[in-house]
């Protein structure tokens, strides 16, 4: 069954606490987005600040940073479940995955919208727990969904990747079922939820879209 993981892209501790407390009443798992100046002109909270806040939620961390492997030990210390690194700013996909596994972290690789899927080290990617496909440019919220992301999801499934595929960016009521149809099973939802007048009702509508397709 595909799942919705709300994304948290914030630049203040107050906003982080507010969203964590809200989502604790709604889901079991969220995605914390950490972006530095290399990925966005509007950086988020730093890794330590983003991860140190207590919560009952299972947390995936999307590391949109230079050398995401540098933050794996912090992820382990702070009880993170899954560490996802963007491949564009890591020197070695293989080393990132190996280091995460040595720390007993679930590990994922993220591919930005403008990055050719050929840049994904397939021998390494086959060993990860999750591949994250950006449907917008990494590091920004509220962008329009790009259909090319669905082509990439289908390509990964054709290659035999049977673990989790996450689509991140622009996922909303109009696009969520298409993501599932293409083969995605983790739907990272940001502004569609957070900017809704009634977040709980919007979450139910998104879930209904998934359930309707699955039936």
Automatic annotation (TrEMBL):
<dbReference type="GO" id="GO:0005975">
    <property type="term" value="P:carbohydrate metabolic process"/>
</dbReference>
<dbReference type="Pfam" id="PF00834">
    <property type="entry name" value="Ribul_P_3_epim"/>
</dbReference>
<keyword id="KW-0413">Isomerase</keyword>
<dbReference type="InterPro" id="IPR013785">
    <property type="entry name" value="Aldolase_TIM"/>
</dbReference>
<dbReference type="GO" id="GO:0016857">
    <property type="term" value="F:racemase and epimerase activity, acting on carbohydrates and derivatives"/>
</dbReference>
<dbReference type="GO" id="GO:0046872">
    <property type="term" value="F:metal ion binding"/>
</dbReference>
<keyword id="KW-0479">Metal-binding</keyword>
<dbReference type="InterPro" id="IPR000056">
    <property type="entry name" value="Ribul_P_3_epim-like"/>
</dbReference>
<protein>
    <submittedName>
        <fullName>Ribulose-phosphate 3-epimerase</fullName>
    </submittedName>
</protein>
<dbReference type="InterPro" id="IPR011060">
    <property type="entry name" value="RibuloseP-bd_barrel"/>
</dbReference>
């Amino acid at each position: 069954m595909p799942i919705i993981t709300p994304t948290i892209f914030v630049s203040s501790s107050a906003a982080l606490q507010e969203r964590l407390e809200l989502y604790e009443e709604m889901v079991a798992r969220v995605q914390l987005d950490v972006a530095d100046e290399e990925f966005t002109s509007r950086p988020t909270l730093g890794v330590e600040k983003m991860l140190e806040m207590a919560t009952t939620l299972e947390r995936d961390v999307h590391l949109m940073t230079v050398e995401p492997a540098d933050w794996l030990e912090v992820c382990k210390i702070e009880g993170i479940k899954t560490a996802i690194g963007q491949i564009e700013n890591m020197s070695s996909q293989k080393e990132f995955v190996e280091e995460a596994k040595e720390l007993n972290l679930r590990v994922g690789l993220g591919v930005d919208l403008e990055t050719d899927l050929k840049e994904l080290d397939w021998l390494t990617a086959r060993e990860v727990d999750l591949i994250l496909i950006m449907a917008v440019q990494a590091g920004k919220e509220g962008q329009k969904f790009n259909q090319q992301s669905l082509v990439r999801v289908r390509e990964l499934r054709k290659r035999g990747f049977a673990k989790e595929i996450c689509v991140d960016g622009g996922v909303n009521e109009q696009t969520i079922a298409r993501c599932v149809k293409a083969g995605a099973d983790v739907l990272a939802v940001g502004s569609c939820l957070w900017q809704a007048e009634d977040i709980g009702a919007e979450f139910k509508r998104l879930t209904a879209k998934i359930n309707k397709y699955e039936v």
